[in-house]
Amino acid sequence: MNYSHISPAAFVPLRSRLWPRTHDATRRLQAGCRMLALLTAVSGLLDQTALATVPFVVAHRGDSGHAPENTLAAIDLAVGVADMTEFDVQISADGELVLMHDSTVNRTTNGRGRVSSLTLAELETLDAGAWFSSSFIGEPVPTLGEAMNAATEGNLEPFVEQKSGTAADYHEAFEMLGYAPDEFRVISFSWSFLDDMNALNAEYHLGALGSGGLNQRTIDRAVASGADFIDWHHSAINQATVDLVHANGMELHVYTVDSPMRMQELIALGVDGITTNDPGTLAALLAVPEPPLASTLLAASGCFYLWRWPRDRTGRSRAAWTFERA
Fold first, then answer.
1. Is the domain of 240 the same as that of 306?
2. Which of 51, 59, 61, 139 has the smallest number of CB atoms closer than 10 Å to its CB?
């Protein structure tokens, strides 16, 4: 069709009717972008608050999911992945502290007998890796000193769990090794042992291991034994117990957590440390956290609010009206 015969002035009424709507839509879009930018900034601050407590990754008996437990190989695999490494310590027949969870060597070596009945020389002949995998044949039973040195050389804080031996045995070993009390932690289910360690040096960083109900009376007992932090079975932990321990000015560590879903729950609760056989999975969850709920809700509510923003008497969005005059 040829509209050349129509005067340009004829289009003016049509333009005047369409322009306000187009102009208003542009303004609303600009207002929406500014509002979402503001919401993003606010949600970012909430995200930082939500992630303020990042738990320590504690490798259980080293990276025991990928190497034989309580060996130097397991400790080495935890380097660069975990913050700390826990290992269990027993005392030999000749008073040497060595890494072994069980009271006997039967399960994790090619030998038999109680650790307390074998000398260090006899323990050092055992193979502590073949039971786990042929890749670890010949892995030795390490001493406490060897384990602590391997951990600290890899920037891992040692988490020494006492299984047997007296406080005097450990105190003497730490002094001979030359470690300062703030360079490692000691944990035990024997709270009387913790009390004895505290008496020998009040600077030791001691953790009270336990399970079951965790209440103020239990915490008071732990504090009385010289404990600086609580290390509890994760099944008893909820928001109330986390808040209670923190209200007492103590850290709350939990053990032993291998489920990624439970790891995420405990991270959200704000625990201070998670002991796991799979430190790599926990480290990965902490490296790429899920978007906090606060951010998601803010963004969603912001979009809904803009969509439902009331109009003024001219029919224009009040969002545009507000930002035009800002």
1. no
2. 51
